[in-house]
Amino acid sequence: MALADSRALIAPKPRPGRRPPGLFATIVRRRTDYLYVLPAILVMLVVIGYPLVSTVFLSFFEITSSGERVATGVDNYQRILTDRRVNFWKITGNTLYWTVGSTFFATVLGFGAALVLHRRFPGRGVVRAILLIPWVISHVAAAYVWRWILHSDYGLLGGSLVAWGALDQTPVLLDSKANVMPTLIAVNVWKEFPFVMIMLTAGLQTVPEGLLRAARIDGANIWNQFRHVTLPHLKGVVLITTLLLFVTNLNSFTLVWLMTGGGPANASALWITQIYKLAFVGSPQRGLASAFSVILFLIMLGLGYFYVRALTRGNPDQGAA
Amino acid sequence: MAGMSLREVYKTYDDVVAVDRVSLEVEDGEFVALVGPSGCGKTTTLNLVAGLIELTDGDILLGDRAINDLDPKDRDLAMVFQNYALYPNKNVFDNLAFPLKMRGMKKGEIDARVRKTADILSIGPLLDRKPRQLSGGQQQRVALGRALVRNPKAFLMDEPLSNLDAKLRVQMRAELKRFHQELRATVLYVTHDQMEAVTMADKIAVMSGGVLQQYGTPDEIYERPVNTFVAGFIGSPAMNLTRAAYVAADGGGFVRGSEGWEHPLSAVNAERAGRSSGEVVVGIRHSQVRIYREARPGTVAAQVYTVEPTGDLTYVHFRLGGQLLVASEDADFRAAPDDPIWVEFDQDHLHLFDATTEQALFRIGAAAANGTERAREGA
């Protein structure tokens, strides 16, 4: 070590115009810098790297009931796309429906709430706190409470509607193939809109007062002030919030799994609930579940790229795009 | 264009009085500067006129129409802001077109007016650029253009030059003045820089503590400040102000500083000082102090503190009693620190204020004195 050190010290500095030193040489030369990030890298390797590699590995095997590993090549990938029991295309459709629907309505509702709460009125703080509740409640608690409220036979909602005479019989929501997705999306929007509200409330507070004043003098009414000053200013925040929600919703599991388990008849099954089912429920098919995960990982990687681009866009310091 | 009147304009925030019954008349085509230190209420006054904040009491008239209760967009006033407030997502053309679009003007006419305005301000080549691609001076011009394009009844300007560097500020000052003279526009202009006010405005309104201290032409304000605040605020270097006791004597009298120095007063000035409570504040501009190298009758002994040659003239800071005062001398005047000198205040240009009320003690029937010639320093 000491020898290597002294060599590094006496080694001539690379002359300009010469080939730049290789990656390994750079790491050796700047080893202290790398040592600082080493613990973080080690943790990442253990909790992300190892599962990632082992999942990719597993996706090329089938594990028999006796626990034996049998190499199957790309069989698992083929089965995912063709096997009717996996139902990949139907589930992908569900997931997109769920993700786009939840993201869109949560954004609209959250934006509306942020705008309303941006104006001063008595009790604003209290209203803001109340609207935040869905976001801070745990997913599990929310799922169980909503399952009870929406239950087809003795749900609070159905019961109340019948009792008030609005309906003749309790509505079938979570147990109907047609109604289950809109119902779940509604619950998810309820859970997620406060996040949008918070992000946009923060954004609204940075809209330059001077620009709004200039717009008022220039003859803009409330709508035009919003359209020409506020909205352009919030474009970045809206984009990032929407992307963040989009990715979160693509990865949704808890709410749907606890409320319907993906049923009835896979009508509300999403990517992640289906992977979980394949891996851990009934007769587990780990290889198949792993292949599914790998496909999903690649899709997420693509989305992650767009997310990072959106985050750094228009900011030359970060040198993206 | 139209004149403007503020009548007893009053604005409070909770218990704080921001603007305290300010009244002033702006004639059609007049350039009026609202000047005062930070927090004096000048910007609040401007925002009240613009309608961006609500009046607590009083009236604002544009022409002969009360505009108190009108929305800013219905007041037909244009405003230029300190930080320009250009719409960052719109290019220069759309920034200029915005107020016209908001008024529902036809596309062809918008185009014609924007291009004409751009020509006047020579920003034609910049029409496709976004504000962030413009220099400070160019942004300033676009902001002015956005006000100009509407052809409003009057212009409100909120420290429009204070974000520019010193050199550009002087240049834009001249441009603004020229623009006003060509258009004969009614302008209400807020600034904390008394030099801007003095050089550009037809009339100056000096404010302090929410109260209008004095309203008049730059000459009036400079020659006949009504109180010690105005006297000390307008002019650069500031007017020398020093407290002294008035002592009556045959053929006039004199003022005596607390450290014992005595300066004689002419009969006229003695009469003015005689109306005080006994203590006066003597005010004298640097250009009206004469410096001698040896004692003479009617002079006061002082010591040089430091000498500042500026090229055109030399400022002589000197100690009179415990106080530092300033005089201006010829460019070639030189003296060492602590050199003894004898100073004389020009009796015709002596300002006297009552030390208790801080109000000016004017010569009786002295209106004619306003015509006296003066050297406007620094400009």
Keywords:
heterodimer; A: 321 residues; mainly alpha; MetI-like fold; 14 helices; 2 strands; disordered N terminus; B: 379 residues; alpha+beta; Rossmann fold; OB fold (Dihydrolipoamide Acetyltransferase, E2P); 2 domains; 6-stranded mixed β-sheet; 5-stranded antiparallel β-sheet; 9 helices; 20 strands; elongated; disordered C terminus; transmembrane helix (chain A); UgpAE/MalFG_permease (chain A); cell membrane (chain A); membrane (chain A)
Map the helices and strands:
The complex is a heterodimer of chains A (321) and B (379).
Chain A: H1 2-10, H2 23-29, H3 31-58, E1 61-63, E2 69-71, H4 75-82, H5 88-118, H6 124-136, H7 139-149, H8 156-163, H9 180-204, H10 209-217, H11 222-250, H12 254-259, H13 271-280, H14 286-312
Chain B: E1 4-13, E2 16-26, E3 31-35, H1 42-50, E4 57-62, E5 65-66, E6 77-80, H2 92-102, H3 107-120, H4 136-148, E7 154-158, H5 166-183, E8 187-191, H6 194-200, E9 203-208, E10 211-216, H7 218-223, H8 228-233, E11 240-249, E12 252-256, E13 262-265, H9 267-274, E14 279-284, E15 289-292, E16 300-309, E17 313-320, E18 323-330, E19 340-345, E20 351-354
Parallel strand pairs in B: 3-8, 3-9, 6-7, 7-8
Antiparallel strand pairs in B: 1-2, 1-4, 4-5, 9-10, 11-12, 11-14, 12-13, 14-20, 15-19, 16-17, 16-19, 17-18
Helix pairs in contact in B: 2-3, 2-4
GO cellular component, one term (chain A): plasma membrane
Subcellular location (chain A): Cell membrane
Main location (chain A): membrane
Query: Helix fraction of chain A?
Result: 55-70%
Query: How much strand content do the residues of chain B show?
Result: 25-35%
Low-confidence parts of chain B: 367-379
Output the number of helix runs of chain A: 14
User: Major sheet of chain A: order of its strands?
Assistant: 1-2
Full CATH superfamily name of the largest domain in chain B: P-loop containing nucleotide triphosphate hydrolases
- What is the approximate shape of chain B? elongated
Provide the CATH top-level class of the domain at 93-265 in chain A: Mainly Alpha
Distance between the termini of chain B: 30 Å
Q: How is the largest sheet of chain B built, in terms of strand order?
A: 6-7-8-3-9-10
Task: Give the SSE string of chain B.
Answer: EEEHEEEHHHEHEHEEHHEEEHEEEEEEE
* SSE string of chain A: HHHEEHHHHHHHHHHH
Helix content of chain B: 10-25%
Structural class of chain A: mainly alpha
CATH class membership of the largest domain in chain B: Alpha Beta
| Average predicted confidence as pLDDT of chain B | 88
The count of DSSP E runs of length 2 or more, i.e. the number of strands of chain B, is 20
Amino- and carboxy-terminal Cα gap of chain A: 41 Å
The chain-level mean pLDDT of chain A equals 85
